[in-house]
Amino acid sequence: MSRYSDRLAALRDQLARDGLDGFVVPLTDEHMSEYVGGYAQRLAWLTGFEGSAGTAVVMAGEAAIFTDGRYTIQVRDQVDGGDYAYVDVPAHSVAGWLGRHAKDGARIGYDAWLHTRGWVDEARAALADVGAELIAVDANPVDAVWADRPAPSKARLVAYDDALAGQNSAAKRADIADWLGEQRADAVVLTALDSIAWTLNVRGADVDHTPVALAYAIVGADGATDLFVDRDKIDDSVTAHLGNSVRIHDRNAFAPALAGYAGQRVAADPDRAVAAIFDALADGGAKVIAPRDPVVLAKAIKNPVEVAGHAAASVRDGAALTRFLRWVETTCGDGSQTELSAAAKLLACRQATGQLKDSSFSTISATGAHGAIPHYHVTEESNAAILPGQLYLIDSGGQYADGTTDVTRVMPIGEPTPEMRDRFTRVLKGHIAIATAVFPDGTVGGHIDSFARRPLWEAGLDFGHGTGHGIGSYLAVHEGPQRIAAPNYPGGAALEPLRAGMLISNEPGYYKAGDYGIRIENLVHTVVVVVPGGDPDRVMLGFDTLTLAPIERTLIESALLTEAELSWLNAYHARVTEILGPVLSGEDRAWLESKCTPIAR
């Protein structure tokens, strides 16, 4: 038996001891985070799956793992199909599967600190329909059998300079207090780690690649805030930074504190606060309302200081990426380099800036067939040599104090095939369609998603992920609420109106299973645009591209580009040269200039 089969067997034994017939294991933490600390990596420990979204259900006689279209290949590579059935979402839901597979009288366990109230209601109803019961456990059974489970991080919080944030914490908390007045509420519970970091202008190191700290916060109607965090993580400088209006409590005091709001009206976000929080508030006699976390939109609409920080980070990061891309072209053609060595080289290029805090996510360094796995994660076991005839895809980003970056480029190793050039150019056409889009204020991301797909659709092709995600300011690389995505792709419809100030990625792609992958990703800033001759009373928006790095010209079939598309590409490359040229020198600068030379018909 494999170690994962052994772990599955151990969990089943524990469930029997706990009087449970099944248990649900999500990939999240008690803050509903996308990326979680090592202590919360229960799904990976149990199954071997290393993606960033998934759930397992374990019952006595069967088990299943649920992943979306981004991980169709990866989950089959990493999880034993003899142990788990593969179930695709959103075509199938965990609750629906439970309703079909649980037996009459079954007791299915869940950890109320790892699921939303909506999920609990859905699963409970599905199980009740077949005479089964959903049971909240007092202790997570996975933790009981995970003998070497890591402890939560003890990393200290650090103050985030108001000069980088563009607004001090007191002003942010005053805005939340105004929002509470509008909601006729006495307090709001903040559980999302990036919401807390943004509100208090603090950063941490408790989650890989995301500078946040494990904490909860409750903001009152006067702006005064109770912060629940491991006291060992707070030093005098952070205490002084937070000020007298932020009261610090031990993190373990959070759950008991929820019982102290009897008769008060308390807000909690149903998508970000777990079911246990709603239960504790209700049991304590609070009147619970469920609007969206008020920080979410405020954080998404960047102020001028944050935008300027992103622009500065983009120059620094673009120069590092350019040095790396030249290295790929000049070094990787003989098969001596691998996905891991290339990822290490790019990290070294970013570290050489002297300002890198961390990568913004685990670098996707993928050659050949691995590039067809959108969220591929290279390991020692999967590490492949970068060989001639392949496309090499690198999706990566950096965390800098002034901004978070995320960029994808593709480089041919040797001569690309005509098909590769055709597909790359169609992806580029879709990328340009988003970059040049003009749309009315209030347009939702889902309305423009098809712009990126039309050149592929015309050839009977598509890609199985969203076109764009929001991004934080030295925070989470994936930040809502804005997205560019169609309803039938992971995450569902992108229904948040796009607003001036939002940052979002522009990343269409194409993936040929077993052969290669293509994705072109830049970050863009949503701005107000003036359309000559347009209705002066109608506010129109568009995008200003922030990312600066050459788009590989040998993969472009210029005959497929319209005059307008070619004009955009040449103008983009001229801007890349103008801004990055002075930052680079010698062979790096000469290489950049050659890559950004205007393309003629």
Give a description of the structure.
There is one protein chain. With 601 residues, the protein is an alpha+beta fold. It has 3 domains: 3-145, 3-Layer(aba) Sandwich (Creatine Amidinohydrolase, Chain A, domain 1), CATH 3.40.350.10; 158-292, Creatinase/prolidase N-terminal domain (Creatine Amidinohydrolase, Chain A, domain 1), CATH 3.40.350; 301-589, Creatinase/methionine aminopeptidase superfamily (Creatine Amidinohydrolase). 34% of the residues lie in helices and 20% in strands. The protein has a 6-stranded mixed β-sheet. A 6-stranded mixed β-sheet has the order 12-11-10-8-13-14, sandwiched between helices. A hairpin with a 3-residue loop joins strand 25 and strand 26. It is globular. The model has no long low-confidence stretch (mean pLDDT 96).
Keywords:
globular, 3 domains, Creatine Amidinohydrolase, Chain A, domain 1, 6-stranded mixed beta sheet, Creatinase_N, about 600 residues, Creatin/AminoP/Spt16_N, aminopeptidase, 28 strands, alpha+beta, hydrolase, Creatine Amidinohydrolase
Brief characterization of the structure:
Keywords: Aminopeptidase, Hydrolase, Metal-binding, Protease. With 601 residues, the chain is of the alpha+beta class.
Spell out the blueprint of helices and strands:
Blueprint: H1 3-17, E1 22-26, H2 42-47, E2 55-59, E3 63-67, H3 72-78, E4 85-88, H4 94-101, E5 107-110, H5 117-128, E6 133-136, H6 141-145, E7 158-159, H7 162-165, H8 169-183, E8 187-190, H9 193-200, E9 202-203, E10 215-220, E11 225-229, H10 236-242, E12 246-249, H11 254-257, E13 265-268, H12 275-283, E14 287-289, H13 294-300, H14 304-331, H15 339-351, E15 356-359, E16 364-367, E17 391-396, E18 398-400, E19 403-404, E20 407-412, H16 418-435, E21 439-440, H17 445-457, E22 468-470, E23 479-484, E24 503-506, E25 509-512, E26 516-519, E27 522-529, E28 540-545, H18 563-580, H19 586-595
Parallel strand pairs: 1-5, 3-4, 5-6, 8-13, 11-12, 13-14
Antiparallel strand pairs: 1-2, 2-3, 7-9, 8-10, 10-11, 15-18, 16-17, 17-20, 18-19, 21-28, 22-23, 24-27, 25-26, 27-28
